[in-house]
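User: I'm writing a short methods note and want a consistent example. For Peptidyl-tRNA hydrolase, I'll paste the sequence; you return only the structure tokens, no commentary, since I'll be parsing the reply automatically.
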Amino acid sequence: MSNIKLIVGLGNPGAEYAQTRHNAGFWFVDELARAGGASLRHESKFHGLVAKVRLEGREVWLLQPQTFMNRSGLSVVSLAQFYRILPDEILVVHDELDIPPGQLKLKQGGGNGGHNGLKDTQAHLSTPNFWRLRVGIGHPGNKNEVASFVLKPARREEQELIDDALNRAHVVLPKMLAGDMGAAMQLLHTDEAKKRPNKPKPE
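Assistant:
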């Protein structure tokens, strides 16, 4: 299995969006840059903030597209093509409505669930077969409220759960960077299962 060579955090640029749920991918990449002792710098040819870091003994590119969410793919494909990074060597980190705050899912390929950042990335890469780390932010309950929901900050208790989930993602990062996604998924999803409340047993 291929090593991960590019980690993309999806989000929207600008201070007004920095703390909104839609920027969960940016938060993860910010932490990776700090861990690698690097500063994300604007690269116009990649339409984003970029850094090359050494994490767990491996060099990896970090990217935060600055194109706004619905044009994220332009930034991703620009860097990936320039450095000859294949889709299965890319990990895209993004907010996920269908997962509660505090939970994570790691997967390769699949649909985009209406997520405009994923949709545009799939279109530009001409394949859905990149890796995704789905960061749960919960759902407002009414699909008509989704657009405003993702562009608002999480409630404090939700933010604490999201932060805890992102910290757990750092624990499995060495396996993701090494391309051992099966082991990463097992660790991550087993941990998730332990955190879910047990269903009552029938009497």
